[in-house]
Amino acid sequence: MSPSLILVNGASSAGKSTLCRALRDALPGAFLHFSLDFFMFDAQVLPRTPEGRLRDWATLRPRVFEGFHRCLPALLTAGNDLVVDYIIETPAMWAEFSAQLAGFDVFLVGVQCPVEELERREIARGDRGLGDARRDAETVHTFTAYDLTLDCAAPLAQNVARVSQAWQNREAGASRAFLGERPPSPSS
């Protein structure tokens, strides 16, 4: 069986990383959790100023994102199952990302969260730029369909069970997002 990627998309502070860590430990088989946050926050890979801000981010950002996009096919090709949290910011980013992942078994999950809750979490975390969550919330769910959509207010265990069940019951390689389906319009 070919390796699988469960890709979790949502605004900053929607709970993607928490969900992915729980999925990593709950899904059958050995899934690796991979995230751009590993570069940004966890491993301290990126250069920083003495005050702790990212240095040369405008120059580094496109290269870091492209490198991250290229990591996923490499990990999948090596036979790893992945659960990945990510903020797909623009239709162009989605097009690049989906081209990199074409031919792989991808299951796309959207995490919806009200802006007020995102902003509350953003402030409580203290490690994100204020306004990032609102900006993300206005765009991240506008340009692709999902195989499954979750509500951030649902209990974590319930969302983990929903993803696990939907992923196990899916038709491999038949992702709505990768078949080119568009999200429903707000009026439908």
What does this molecule look like?
The protein is α/β, with parallel strands linked by helices and 188 residues long. Helices cover 43% and strands 16% of the residues. It has seven helices and five strands, in the order βαβααβαβααβα. The chain has a five-stranded parallel β-sheet, with helices on both faces. It is globular.
In short:
This protein has 7 helices and 5 strands. With 188 residues, the protein is an alpha/beta fold.
Q: Unreliable stretches, pLDDT < 50, 5 or more residues?
A: none
How many β-strand stretches? 5
Please tell me how large the radius of gyration is.
Answer: 16 Å
Spatial shape: globular
User: Structural class per helix/strand content?
Assistant: alpha/beta
Measured as a percent range, the helix fraction is 40-55%
Largest sheet: number of strands, sense, barrel closure? 5 strands, parallel
Helix/strand order: EHEHHEHEHHEH
The order of strands across the largest sheet is: 2-3-1-4-5
Strand content: 15-25%
Which oligomeric state applies? Answer: single chain
- CA(first)-CA(last) distance: 37 Å
- Give me the number of helical elements: 7
Q: Mean of the pLDDT scores?
A: 84
Supply database-style keywords.
single chain, 43% helix, alpha/beta, 7 helices, five-stranded parallel beta sheet, globular, 188 residues
